[in-house]
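# nightly structure sweep
# worker-07 picked up a monomer target from the shared queue
# config: single-sequence mode, recycle default, output format = C-alpha cells
# input follows
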Amino acid sequence: MSIKMLLILPVLELLLFILFGDLLGFFPVIFFILLSGLIGFYLLRSGMNPKKIAENPKEWIFTKFAGILLLIPGFITDFCGVFLLIKSLRYLIWDYVPDRTKNYFYDDE
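# output follows
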C-alpha cells in the first residue's frame, strides 16, 4: 500500500496545486509553497544541543521529519509536516511507528 501511495502522491499534489490555484490564485499558492519550504529549511538547519537531543530524541526526530515534509513542495506534505509540529498530535503518529523502530527510543510516558 505504501508503494501505491508514493506513486499517487505526486498526482494528488498536482491536483491540489491546481485546485488551490483556482481558489486562491497563482501568486498566493506560490508564496505559500515558498514559505513552507523556508520554514522546513529552518527546521532542518536549526540545531538542538546534544543534551536536549539525548533527553528527548523523539522531539528531535519529529521536528526534523516535519522539516523534511515542509521542504517538499506540496499541500499534502505540508499538512503532514504541520501535523508533526503539533506536540499533542505527534503521539497519534507514534502509535503507528513499528515496534522495532520504537525500541531505539525510550518511552517517557
